[in-house]
Amino acid sequence: ILHGIPSWALDNGSYDEKRTRIRNTIRPLLSELANLIVSWNPNDIWLKFRRTTLLEALKHYWKYDPATLPTGVDSLLMYLSVTDNPPKDRLSEDVVGLRKKSGVSLVAVAKKVPDLLVPWLSQLSDRAKSLLSSGGMSPVNEMHLYEFLSCVATAVENPLDRSNFIADVLSSSIRILESPEIQNSITSVEGLLSFLGIAQAASNPASVTDPTFVRKVTNDFEMLFSSLNQLLSVGKRCNEAAKKRPNGGLPLQNLSATVDDSCNFPDEGPVSINELVINDPFVPLWPKILPTLLKVMDVTLRVWHPECQASLLQNNIQRYAVAISDDEAFLAIKQDGSVKGVFGEGGTAGSIVSGTDRRDLNLAPRWSGWFNESRNTCFQLLGLMCMQRVIFAPELSHLYPQFVAVVANQEHLRSMEHRHFNQYLKQFIELMMLSCPAPLYQSHLTAILGPVFEHLQFRLQYSWNPVLGTGSMGIESTRPMGSDNCMTIANQLASVGVEQWLISYYARGGLFVGDLNTVTSEAAVEKARVELTRTYADMLQSTLALKGTWALVLANKAREDLALKRNDPSKLMSGPINKLSNGKEFLNADGTKRTLAQLHIDARRLVRIDKLCHFLLLENEQIAGSLVVTVIQCLEYPDAYTCR
After folding, report:
1. Which conformational region is residue 360 in: left (phi greater than 0), alpha (psi within -120 to 50 degrees), or beta?
2. What is the rounded CA–CA span in Å between residue 374 and residue 300?
């Protein structure tokens, strides 16, 4: 209801007598409502949860009358540290839910009215530091707190002040990543396996269930993961805020009223961090973050190299480090609504490591989730760096060879499972292609896309050959690798060699399913194969402007051409038939408002669309050859979505 109230009923604008009368009636009522919600102080946990929901809804009202905003935000901050009454050894699910809801509500409020919270930024920062130093907050709530502060900080007017505040907020995360303990753990595969308690399981199997050791290893991993995740969360918020600035995130101080028809854009090329920071306060942190990020990604992907995998698979406990998680097994089964999640009746909790799941004091079922979290966070951080254009900045040119050596490492590409490769393509490769300025395609994309597209042709071919009945591998090669046959498959590496071993590896999607039942295992392999192919198809559609933001650019261009041809500007002020419009504002083809910044951004995207198509198909034989052959091969795969 609050969201739906029109702005004229709340703001201080000049309107006709009827609207003014309605406003004079509504505003006192809403003020009373806001005061009632803010002053309400229930004791019951579920009533506190309801109050949190109401406080979040007030963000639509606070935009016009922020009188109760400080008190409301203070209540949400207080709920972040709420405990059971009487206290318990472990927080109840109700309290955990309230804390999570409060954190989400804080971020939602900060995104809606960040400018109104700026005057209290110093006090909010002190309050956040107090909560963080108390030691009783979960990693999720810590992340919410960092996101909340970063949302408020993006509304600070001075770019230097914004940047300094974000650097201060994230200083502890960067300090943890630079600590000797973390650096030693990511220097080698052996160091990482020891850090996660995997190495110790070989000589002392009981260590994985030793409560003291489990808690120590869990705390160590959470320290590493939380630091990376906080950087990702804050970076995303800063990037979102940068796109909402008047210049649309373009590294230009002022946008001209008309777009340069010559397509000569000075910002389409390397742009220094000093210029990028005007919009995005996060970017100056990348020179500190990138070296450690590359180390984490490199050492994590090395665990899946055939030699390391084979070694782990031969141990009855260590093998679960490279298994899929209970959550991934759950996603592989058809959902009919009767199963209430992974841990519900009929769920998949305890199906990978038989009889135990990640809620137990046992490291074995936790490893798969930990690897997923750290790997996906690394991919997302790389994608964020591309969207923020930092990887193309001159200040990072000296790190670019090291960057390519990790992200396009042939052994890493060959060793990833299908599920890893999906995230790699979606969260990094696609974003890099869409974010790279056109003049930098040769210098920044060639060294990465060449190996990636060439490997994809190889991977997809041997993933589908057994299904199509072509090649040397029969349909039996798609049988999942589980606890019953993993030892045999691991031993085959020495006898058949890496190349042949990888061919069978792709046939089963690279998956190790642990103790999972046969039906769900086969469904997981099928899902991995189909999802990889669809992800590839989606990525190509996005980069060839057949879907996504670039497709909207072409749709807008077609509308403009039609309006010009018919000499009818009204065509540019109407959206789809299912979207309302007032006929007075220029709209995009999807019905959203068209701004001056978007006109400038779309002009640059039009250039990129043309240049990227030319680059992918005509400028590099390795990229073009692999891409075209793979597209042709995809036409025979028995998946309607991919073929279409």
Report:
1. beta
2. 8
pLDDT of residue 426: 97
**Residue 438's pLDDT is what?**
94
Residue 469 corresponds to which amino acid?
Answer: G
Give me the half-sphere count of Cα atoms (radius 13 Å) on the Cβ side of residue 251: 22
For 350-364, write each residue's pLDDT tens digit. 999 998 999 999 999
Query: Helices marked H in 40-120 — which ranges?
Result: 45-57, 59-62, 69-79, 93-112, 114-117
pLDDT in tens, 39-55: 999 999 999 999 999 99
Q: Note whether 426 and 495 are within 8 A (CB).
A: no
C-alpha 107/C-alpha 147 separation (Å) is 6
Residue indicated by tokens 């991934």: 328
Q: What is the pLDDT of residue 618?
A: 96
Which among 233, 241, 229 has a CA at the least distance from the CA of 159? Answer: 241
Q: How many CB atoms lie under 10 A from the CB of residue 509?
A: 25
pLDDT of 130 over the 80 cut: yes
Q: Which helix (H) or strand (E) holds 130?
A: helix 121-134
H or E, element range at 455:
helix 446-468
The pLDDT-based confidence of 2 (bands split at 50, 70, 90) is confident
Question: CB under 8 Å, gap of 24 or more: what pairs does 2-6 form?
Answer: 2/30, 2/57, 2/58, 2/60, 2/61, 3/57, 3/60, 5/30, 5/60
pLDDT score for 236: 95
Q: In the chain, what's the furthest Cα-to-Cα distance?
A: 88
Q: Work out the number of other CB atoms within 10 angstroms of the CB of residue 25.
A: 10
Q: How many residues does the chain have?
A: 644
Supply 116's token pair.
């109104």
Judge whether 342 and 349 are in contact, CB under 8 Å: yes
**Packing angle, helices 139-153 and 121-134, rounded to 10:** 170
Asked whether the CA dihedral 537, 539, 542, 543 is positive or negative, the reply is negative
Q: Hey, what amino acid is at 451?
A: P
Task: Quick: pLDDT tens for 484-506.
Answer: 999 999 999 989 999 999 999 99
In single-letter form, the type of residue at position 560 comes to E
Please report, rounded to a whole number, the percentage of residues in the chain having pLDDT higher than 70.
98
Distance CA 237, CA 307 (A): 40
The model's pLDDT over 356-409, given as tens digits with 9 standing for 90+, comes to: 999 999 999 999 999 999 999 999 999 999 999 999 999 999 999 999 999 999
Q: What's the mean per-residue pLDDT of the chain?
A: 92
Residue 436 has pLDDT above 80, yes or no: yes
As a whole number of angstroms, the distance between CA 495 and CA 500 comes to 10
The residues that bridge with 587 in the sheet, in sequence order, are 593
- Cβ–Cβ < 8 Å for 246, 195: no
Tokens representing residue 432 in the block:
């890099």
φ, ψ dihedrals at 257, nearest 5°: -70, -20
pTM: 0.91
Q: Return the CA Rg of the chain.
A: 27
Choose among 171, 82, 70, 75: nearest CA to 129: 171
C-alpha span between 170 and 524 (Å, rounded): 38
Between helix 446-468 and helix 621-634 the angle, nearest 10°, is 30
